[in-house]
Amino acid sequence: MTPRTDAPPPLQVRDVTVRFAGLTALDQVSFTVAPGTAHAVIGPNGAGKSTCFNVLSGLYRPASGSVRLGGTELTRLAPHRIAALGVARTFQNIVTTQGTVADNLMLGRHALTRAGFAASALRLPRAVREQRDHLARVREIAELTGLGALFDTPVALLSYGDRKRVELARALCLEPRVLLLDEPVAGMNAGERVRMAEVVREIRAELGLSVVLVEHDMGLVMRLADEVTVLDFGRRIAHGTPDEVRRDPEVLRAYLGTERADGEDAA
Ligand SMILES: Nc1ncnc2c1ncn2[C@@H]1O[C@H](COP(=O)(O)OP(=O)(O)OP(=O)(O)O)[C@@H](O)[C@H]1O
Questions:
Q1: Confidence bin at 267 (pLDDT 50/70/90)
Q2: Radius of gyration of the chain from Cα atoms?
Q3: Strand (E) positions, the chain?
Q4: pLDDT of residue 261
Q5: Nearest atom within ligand 1 for CA of residue 60
Q6: Does the pLDDT at position 113 exceed 80?
Q7: Listing from the earlier edge strand, what are the strands of the sheet with 227-232?
């Protein structure tokens, strides 16, 4: 019910390979997300970033390799089991259009609800108390993500940027120890991007969780990430701090003609 206070375990990705028919979408990819750090996975279109995220969250099962959260192997677990272990994700495309911000965040608490359906429906005292505690925590998460003033607003009335933050807040309602952010600023305007970057920084500082980020916005990646893994055609071609990867000749080559790894568009 209360926020998790223990440090997140390391997330270790080792030699992960994913094949679709004849195509190797991930080819023996390895990286480690150290506890409490922000780790970005970047690369040109088709590099394997989404495939990597889908492996981490249990939507895809790799042909070989392992993903371990602390001592627990994740690759054989269903997505809801992985979420229950404290790995929550957001999705690129917003699907939320129904209910208020509060309703959506309470849905994010579902997996943490102990009182059964019958107890809740009958409004038994334990269920009522649990519901009240969840609502209080959900309100805190709304404040933390800048949604406090919009708590009772229907999601359908929100701007795109605010709705993306509802998605983020809903993932936080699982009290994750590792947060997977799939293109968190895709489709946002400049102001919304800055706001989202601030929120991600704040939630990391406040909740001490690890963040794994897939993102095309290189400026955001360079500002937020402690470490960066660069994929190209399913292979890891570089790895290091933002400063190290932005100078890496392989990375510059991979991005040539698409975008530069230093956050500037290629001329
Ligand atoms: N379900 C699938 N079936 C077949 N091929 C797939 C599937 N998902 C991804 N691929 C292929 O695997 C490769 C990696 O795709 P992926 O979506 O992981 O790349 P990405 O780096 O996320 O790209 P983008 O930046 O364009 O989202 C691509 O060649 C893609 O066409």
A1: very low
A2: 19
A3: 11-20, 23-33, 38-42, 64-69, 72-73, 87-89, 178-182, 210-214, 227-232, 235-240
A4: 52
A5: 1
A6: no
A7: 87-89, 178-182, 210-214, 38-42, 227-232, 235-240
Closest protein CA for atom 18 of ligand 1: 48
CA 185, CA 194: separation in Å to the nearest integer? Answer: 9
Residue 179 Cα, ligand 1 centroid: separation in angstroms?
21
The number of the ligand 1 atom at minimal distance from the alpha carbon of 53 is 18
Average pLDDT over residues 235-245: 95
Maximal C-alpha separation, the chain: 64
Cα dihedral 167, 109, 197, 38 sign: negative
Q: Which atom of ligand 1 is nearest to the CA of 214?
A: 22
Interhelix angle 101-108/160-172, nearest 10 degrees:
30
ipTM: 0.94
DSSP conformational letter for 3: P
pLDDT of residue 123: 66
Q: What pLDDT sits at residue 58?
A: 95
CA distance 217 to 81: 31
CATH numbers and ranges of domains, the chain: 9-86+176-262 (3.40.50.300), 97-171 (no CATH)
Average pLDDT of the chain to the nearest whole number? 88
Please say whether the beta carbons of 49 and 41 come within 8 A.
yes
CB 57 within 8 A of CB 89: yes
Give the mean pLDDT of 73-89: 94
Residues with C-beta less than 6 Å from any ligand 1 atom: 20, 23, 25, 43, 45-51
